[in-house]
Amino acid sequence: MLSALARPISASSSNGWPRTPILQVSLQTGVRVSELCALTMEDLDFERWQVTVHGKGQAERTIPLN
User: Fold this and answer.
1) Which of 35, 51, 59, 62 lies at a CB distance of 3.0 to 4.6 Å from 31, suitable for a disulfide?
2) How far is Cα 32 from Cα 35, in angstroms, rounded to an integer?
3) How, if at all, do strands 50-54 and 44-45 pair?
4) Considering the domain boundaries, does residue 65 fall inside one?
5) What is the C-alpha to C-alpha distance for residues 64 and 52, in angstroms, rounded to an integer?
6) Is 14 inside any structural domain?
7) Is 62 exposed, middle or buried (0-12, 13-18, 19+ CB in 10 A)?
8) In this structure, is residue 21 part of a structural domain?
9) pTM tops 0.90, yes or no
């Protein structure tokens, strides 16, 4: 498992979708996979560098991005 984490990450997956932005948001915010998959462009605030995450039970939280 740790050896897999130490290997470089390919910039794109087998279907051509970029992995890097998805992984960066995941690692920087600690969101659940289901929350990450549910993100829309409206959830991203590039002026304030933050993302609004919709969690379990309609909970909503705003997380800063680095």
Assistant:
1) 35
2) 5
3) antiparallel
4) yes
5) 9
6) no
7) exposed
8) no
9) no
Q: How many CA atoms lie within 13 A of 52 on its CB side?
A: 10
CA separation for the pair 31, 40 (Å, rounded)? 14
* Calpha distance 62→50 (Å, rounded): 7
DSSP state of 48: T
The verdict on residue 26 lying in a domain is no
Query: What's the CA angle centered on 30, arms 39 and 36, to 5 degrees?
Result: 20
What the block records as the tokens of 53 is 């995450």
CB 28 within 8 A of CB 44: no
Q: Which regions of the chain are under pLDDT 50?
A: 1
3-state secondary structure of 60: strand
Structural domain including 47 reads 41-66
Are residues 9 and 23 in contact, defined by beta-carbon separation less than 8 angstroms?
Answer: yes
